[in-house]
Amino acid sequence: MKLSPEKINQKGSNALKDLIIIAVITVIVFILASVFNVFEILAGFSKKYEKWQVDEIITVFMILSLAFGVFSMRRWSELRAEISRHEKTRHENERLILANQLKSEFLAIMSHELRTPMNAIIGFSELLQRKKAGELNEKQETYLDYIISSGQHLLNLISDVLDMSKIEAGRMELAVERVSVPEAIYEVQTLIKTSAEKRNVILKKEIEPQLEFIEADKRKFKQVLFNLLSNAVKFSKEEGGTVTIMAKRRGDMAEFSVSDTGIGVKEENMGKLFTVFQQLDSGITRKYGGTGLGLAITKQLVELHGGTISVVSKYGEGTTFTFVLPLSADKPVEK
To answer: Which CATH superfamily is domain 176-326 in?
Structure first.
């Protein structure tokens, strides 16, 4: 049984007390027995049954006392060893926590520094694409498309690493405000619309009229929706499909779900969905791309708002992600 530090210290103290009590009682009993001639009386009584002498009774008594003392000492030694192991484990855990914080801070700094040149690369490429510096031939336009799409992909990866490192380092803060649910969903659907059209995916939404506002960090709330919607579109079938976002009010909570008719998730891969840098299948990874950070960040952002997220999927038929957030945030609301 694994003991807590408090229980270990308590048991150690009790063992030491037992040892002291046994030693004191032994000395007191031995003195009293000698003063009142108890050993002689016992010896006289025992002669009716056995031929014991006074020194033999004293010897037996001392052996029993010594046995109790050895037992208590062993118990104390075992508990001291347990305390020592606990201390080593605690120091190792503290070292690992510090190392993890330093790693997260390093990633946050590096990710921030990488974003600046990537934004410059994308920005100047878009200027060239709009022919601000002169006309381009067909091959140059194709190359620029590759540069911009690759740059955007890399920038998204950097942003994901930055977000995850901030969360792990405890530096992610919420700017809570009153968010219009229909407006936020519309804005996210607009962002994902082009990608959905390219994959022949139909976007649908069902929002209960009772759910008008929610207190949350608007940017992070939209990021959660965007991650789930883009994930649903990305893993749609080749012939296309449907992605539906639903928003409902459940008492003092708001429930959101994103359902798709895509490729689904195998049962053995369900546990990997929200794990950092975990990808479900090498074949799927090569075909669809991704680093395994999107859903992990989504889960962290939902929990940062005091909510929960779950998933249900049937391989080959589709997946539904559902997350629940409190309508009212604990933090002050910005009007």
So the answer is: Histidine kinase-like ATPase, C-terminal domain (3.30.565.10)
